[in-house]
Structures are given as structure tokens and as C-alpha cells.
Amino acid sequence: MTEVYDMNRTGKILPVLSLLLASGVAFTAYRLSAQQPPAAAESRSFRPGNAPGLKVTDLGRSSSRTYRVNMVKGDEIVSGLLEFAEKNHIKNGHFTGLGAVDKATLRWSDPVNKSSKKTEVNEEAEVVSLVGSIATDKDGKPTVHAHTVLALSDGSTRGGHLMVAQVSIICEVFVTEEEGAATSASR
After folding, report:
1. Which one of 81, 115, 158, 186 is most buried, counting C-beta atoms within 10 A?
2. CA dihedral sign of residues 91, 184, 104, 176
3. Does residue 149 contact residue 129 with C-beta atoms inside 8 Å?
4. Which of 126, 135, 132 is nearest to 171 (CA)?
5. 81 near 173, Cβ under 8 Å?
6. CB-based contacts of 70, cutoff 8 Å, min separation 6
């Protein structure tokens, strides 16, 4: 049985949580060792590096609007998102989605060699992750920046910057338009 300590620091094992673990329920619990007092575990903060290029843009406190964009067999995902952004005058937003494709081209950028590598997927694949942003270019036209992870039938995955992808069954994308300051694409 897995040892799980309650968060009230009594040091007692919670049988209910152990039972949940055994039944397959996933959750995060902190394991406090006998050598380390609980307060020491809470007082540490970890910063693995630095972020000298960090820039923050306050998009304001205005409400946002979310759309569900459905695509069907034969639709191309990036083109569909661009068409949606143009028709709905989306200047600043982000999206997440999932679905299935039977053809895709992904790109992986190598900043060291200043080159990129393309990966072609020409088989049925599940879109297990689709994330990205919609911004405007210097001419005010919408641009889509998308990254994806595709799961193949053998359980392996392919991922990277999404160049093109043809929907095989359906693709459902949730786009959130931010009403704050419009941003220019820098891609």
C-alpha cells in the first residue's frame, strides 16, 4: 500500500487516500520524510534559471469571448483558423483544440544552426494537443501560430510547429478572443 500523509501534519496515513490510490484515482500528494520537518519543505522555492528577456503585456481586465470552431473531414486546420479570425475580426487571442488528422506537416526549429526540420505525417493520427495564438501582422492581417502533438496508432507521438494539417474526422478548437491590447505577430 502507498504511504500518504495528511496535510494537517499529524503524520498519520490516511486510509481513504491510500484506497483511492489503489483504485487508480490520480492526485498529487506531498510525502514528508521523517528526517525533514514539514516547514522546511514548504519554505523552499526553486528557480532553475533566469529570464532576462521576460516581457509582460497587460491585456487589461476586460472580459474575453470564447468561440468553438468545428472543422470536418478535409478541412485544413491553420487555414480554417485564419478564415475564422478574418471573418470575426480576431486581432488577439489564443486557442486549444483536439481532433484527428490524416495528413500533417510539422516544423521543428533549431535556433543554434538557424535552420528547421520538417516532419511529415501521412497516416491517421489523434490530435492530443493543439495550442496557439492569433495575432496580427504589421499590415493588420491575422496570423496563426500553432503547436501540436499528434499520437500515431502505435502510441508514438510527433510534435512541433503546425504548418498544415488535414482533418480526417473532426477537429474542435476553442478560441478565446482577448479584448485587451492588440499585438503584432513577431513570427
Report:
1. 81
2. negative
3. yes
4. 126
5. yes
6. 170, 171, 172, 173
Return per-residue pLDDT of the chain as tens, 187 residues. Answer: 444 444 444 444 444 444 334 444 443 444 444 444 445 455 566 677 787 877 877 766 667 889 999 999 999 999 999 999 999 999 999 999 999 999 999 999 988 989 999 999 999 999 999 999 999 999 999 999 999 999 999 999 999 999 999 999 999 999 999 875 444 454 4
Q: For 79, list phi and psi in degrees, rounded to 5.
A: -60, -40
CA torsion through residues 11, 17, 19, 25, sign: negative
Q: Please give the helix or strand (H or E) that residue 80 lies within, else none.
A: helix 77-87
Say how far apart CA 84 and CA 136 lie, in whole Å.
13
What is the Cα–Cα distance from 107 to 102, expressed in whole angstroms?
Answer: 17
Residue with cell 477537429: 171
How many residues are given for the chain?
187
- Determine what percent of the chain falls in helix, strand and coil, rounding each to the nearest 5: 15, 45, 45
Cα 126 to the center of its chain, rounded Å? 15
Segment holding 133, helix H or strand E: strand 125-136
Q: Which SS3 state, helix, strand or coil, does residue 43 take?
A: helix
Who's near 115: CB < 8 A, 6+ residues apart?
109
Distance between CA atoms of residues 78 and 92, nearest Å = 16
